[in-house]
Structure formats: C-alpha cells, structure tokens
Specification:
The protein is mainly beta. Helices cover 10% and strands 47% of the residues. The strands form 3 sheets. Strands 1, 2, 3, 4, 7, 8, 11, 13, 14, 16, 17 and 18 form a 12-stranded mixed β-sheet that branches. The chain is elongated and about 60 Å long.
Length: 225
C-alpha cells in the first residue's frame, strides 16, 4: 500500500510539473502567441483585476512567458508576471469600466484591444431566503441578457452550487431543486455575476479572446428546507 501511494504521488508530481512547463516567447514564431484577456470587477470588495494569459497556438496550448522587450499593459500600466499562475496581472480599486489591453510582441507589432463593455448586474433587493424544496425563480437587477453573455449565480452553504444561463433575452434564472438540495440548511451567501466575451479585434494569426465579468455584492441568505 505504501509503495502504491508513493508511486501515485510521484506520478501526480510529474504531471503537475509537466503542466506547469512554460515556453518563452523568444523561442517561437510570434504569430503562434494566442492572447487571452480578462477584466473582472468585484463589487463585494470594489476591486478590478486585469489578467492576460498567453498560450501556444490556441486556448488550450502551453502557457507562454513573454521575453523582453515583449510586454503587455492595461492603459499603459504594465501587468506583472505571476509565475505560479503563468499569467500577467494587475489589480486596482474601483470600477474602471473601459480601457484597453496592449500587447507588444518581439516583431515590434502592437495589438490593442478595448475591454468588452460591462453591464452592472445585482441581486434583487430584499432576497433573504431560498428553499431547497423546489425550483427557485430569481430575477436580477439589470438588463436582459445579450448574445455572448452569461449569468452565473453561486450559492455557498456548506458547499457551493453554481447556476448558469446564457439565453439571449433572459431576465431571470431558475435555480433548480436538484442542485439546491445539495446545500446545507442554515446560513449561506449568494452572489451573481455577468460575463461577456468575444474574439479579439486586433491580433496576430492565432487570435485570442476578451472576457469581462461583473461580480455583484455578496448577500447573506438563509437556506431553508
């Protein structure tokens, strides 16, 4: 049993370090750099986070670390390399609803992409309790969903359950009873987020993706039977 456990840990370690291997951009054709940008605002702590991840060829490729003088910035302010995550990131206070990512590659090309327009979306006023005994109809405080947008609701009570809809024109989401039944009765929290996404308008041959997410204030609720 001990040998089996040790072998299992060793295999997991090899897989982990293999997954964490990164390529430096100086070693590859600059047209093979796929760019993934995210802008996230969290109303619960009033902070915005801008993240850029570069990969080989496509969204599932090996992560890339930019080689100097290649760099990425948001509104002219450089994003810091986070080696443990394989991404570039910066965080600011408040909602900077607007702005642009600028990626400068090793071939002296600059690709500029504006942040996808963000639509503030909050939970309805007065929500205090959700029952586990049936489906729950939850409208949100914000406009109807547009094409290319997704609404997610996360409820944490003992465990976390996530509910999602991407139906264009929707103004509410149904929290289904099967998932609600997995929550623990008692105190919990609920948060809603609205995500919009699309392809980059300025990129190399590999392209990329832009995602903007607005996270609402977190609300304390009671999970009842």
């Amino acid at each position: 049993m001990k040998r089996t456990t040790t072998l299992g840990i060793a295999v997991m370690a090899v897989l982990f370090f293999t997954a964490c291997k990164r390529e430096e951009s100086i070693n590859i054709d600059q047209n093979r750099v796929y760019s993934n940008y995210t802008y996230e605002y969290n109303a619960d702590n009033n902070r915005s986070t801008m993240t850029a991840v570069f990969r080989m060829d496509n969204s599932g490729g090996r992560k890339i670390e930019l080689s100097y003088p290649a760099r990425v910035d948001f509104n002219g302010e450089g994003l810091a390399w986070r080696g443990a995550l394989g991404s570039y990131q910066m965080t600011t206070n408040g909602l900077a609803n607007g702005g642009r990512f600028n990626y400068h590659d090793l071939d002296n090309n600059t690709y500029t992409n504006d942040v996808t327009s963000m639509t503030p979306t909050e939970l309805p006023f007065g929500i205090t309790s959700i029952s586990r005994s049936g489906n729950f109809f939850l409208p949100w405080d914000g406009p109807a969903l547009q094409a290319g947008e997704t609404i997610r609701v996360r409820i944490t009570a003992g465990t976390t359950r996530t509910f999602t809809t991407s139906i264009a024109g929707a103004t509410h989401i149904i929290l289904n009873q099967n998932q609600l039944a997995g929550l623990t009765p008692g105190n919990g929290t609920i948060q809603i987020e609205r995500e919009s996404y699309g392809n980059l308008t300025s990129s190399n041959l590999s392209g990329g993706r832009m995602t903007s997410t607005y996270k609402s204030r977190r609300v304390f609720i009671n999970i009842s039977n």
